[in-house]
Amino acid sequence: MGSKPEKLHLFLLILLFTSLYSSSSSAVTLQSSFPKEALPTKSGYLTVNSTTGSAIFYTYYEAQKPRMNLSETPIIIWLQGGPGCSSMLGNFYELGPFRVSSSLRHNVEHLSLEPNPGSWNRVFGVLFLDNPIGTGFSIASNPEEIPRNQHDVAKHLFIATRKFVALDKLFENRPIYLTGESYAGKYVPGFGYYTLKKNEGLPKSRRLNLAGVAIGNGLTDPEAQVGTHAVNAYYSGLINEKQKTQLEKLQMEAIRLTKNGNWSEATSARSRVLNTLSNMTGLATLYDFRKLKPYEDELVAKFLSNVEIKRALNARESIVFDICSDLVGKVLHEDVMKSVRYMVEFLVKNTKVLLYQGQCDLRDGVVSTEAWMKKMKWEGIGKFLEAERNVWRVNDELAGYVQKWENLTHAVVMNAGHLVPTDQAVNSQAMIEGWVLEKGLFATRLKQKPSNMGKSL
Ligand SMILES: *[C@@H]1O[C@H](CO)[C@@H](O)[C@H](O)[C@H]1NC(C)=O
Ligand SMILES: *[C@@H]1O[C@H](CO)[C@@H](O)[C@H](O)[C@H]1NC(C)=O
Ligand SMILES: *[C@@H]1O[C@H](CO)[C@@H](O)[C@H](O)[C@H]1NC(C)=O
Ligand SMILES: *[C@@H]1O[C@H](CO)[C@@H](O)[C@H](O)[C@H]1NC(C)=O
Ligand SMILES: *[C@@H]1O[C@H](CO)[C@@H](O)[C@H](O)[C@H]1NC(C)=O
């Protein structure tokens, strides 16, 4: 398992007659194509429990234009949120080398893979993991094995990543950066924290070479974050003062339940806050207040429902692919409001941390993240809060803002919602490359204070 399938025709053209459009009189045909050059370098399963056979599904894309020897080229691990959403969303809709796009001609919906101008594997390898087991194409041999907390999630991720690294001599010592979005605001700190602690007791050859963690539009410290929706929406002109007060009452309830450790109720209370905000504003999605329709993530599910494509990816054909697993969502329901801020505090003392947000997200956006960042117990937090927020430009155009002190970097990505790489592919690539390679505003020490502020890269 795990390497490229030997025979794959240059273009697979598969016709699927779907019942999705049964309401319309004429059936819509779905046509999908998967060009050979879009195949992952490696894909398949990493067993996390040899007794039961539970396994994490992965796709790996080697760097397209590595700047250094491959044996030293960083590897980025991407984890989707949810809880329970598949990293194939990141792969085929956000930051992978090819993204699904759809066009409708004469009642035929064409799903094709188009090259991504901002793919994150330009100069790094990128590994997508369907996490936790039960998510996407990953296998949970029985539901009881699905992790219920971040420690158990991390345990499986550590085992899977160790197995991945052992697949090829070329992977052995490469620096690993953990990244992810949304609920991965829990997974990324959880996995990073577990790794640093676990590494201490292991011989060098069995450690993971963790070099940094990055979280996009994350849920990390829910108690602080759930308290920010009302002011954020009010000062964005989306609700009035009366609605703000109503929303604040609901937020207080979510906070109270969280403080009491009434986890399940607290999660439901947070959902009420978000549903109420959604009802009040009438927005198509809280993931981006600009959007007139939601993100089209179901394209990925349609694309991956195709058995030929599952085969091409070395995914188990019998698995019915869902973008997000309701079962995993349920299993982690009580985990949602639990904070992992203390894990980020540990990480920022021992490695580097990037927190970035699309500016237009109303769920886990800029205000929401700053609310907990400023509460961090870390000797550098005062210096960070005093540090200049620099205007960040890419190709001479305004891309956002970057604030940094030592190991902590905060980036705001303009004109982006919850799925930053989907909305700002090229700028998200500039961000991740800048941060990993410590270039421009992401450099550890800015060479000199720019004299004309804002012109610096
Ligand atoms: C593997 O599964 C068995 C049986 O469910 C369980 O006892 C064990 O803890 C699992 N190991 C891991 C690493 O999850
Ligand atoms: C790449 O690796 C080779 C062999 O180990 C070494 O001679 C060479 O200097 C390396 N190149 C770079 C750019 O590190
Ligand atoms: C949790 O909250 C619900 C609703 O407020 C309440 O009925 C229940 O008793 C609480 N449970 C605990 C353990 O506090
Ligand atoms: C939001 O609106 C829908 C449809 O009107 C309704 O069913 C739902 O109960 C509302 N939710 C909240 C939290 O107000
Ligand atoms: C930043 O991380 C390094 C390890 O990479 C650590 O030695 C240093 O103490 C950290 N700095 C602060 C201010 O926490």
UniProtKB/TrEMBL annotation:
Q: Give this protein's Gene Ontology molecular function annotations.
A: serine-type carboxypeptidase activity
Q: Which organism is it from?
A: Solanum tuberosum
Q: Which GO terms describe its biological process?
A: proteolysis
Q: Into which EC class is this enzyme placed?
A: hydrolase
**What SUPFAM superfamilies is this protein classified in?**
alpha/beta-Hydrolases (SSF53474)
Give the signal peptide, or none: 1-27
**Protein keywords:** Carboxypeptidase, Glycoprotein, Hydrolase, Protease, Secreted, Signal
Which PANTHER family does the entry mention?
SERINE CARBOXYPEPTIDASE-LIKE 50, SERINE PROTEASE FAMILY S10 SERINE CARBOXYPEPTIDASE
Which family is this sequence assigned to? Belongs to the peptidase S10 family.
Q: Report the PROSITE patterns cross-referenced here.
A: CARBOXYPEPT_SER_HIS, CARBOXYPEPT_SER_SER
Q: What is its EC number?
A: 3.4.16.-
- Note the Pfam families from the entry: Peptidase_S10
GO terms for cellular component: extracellular region
Cellular localization per UniProt = Secreted
Name recorded for this polypeptide: Carboxypeptidase
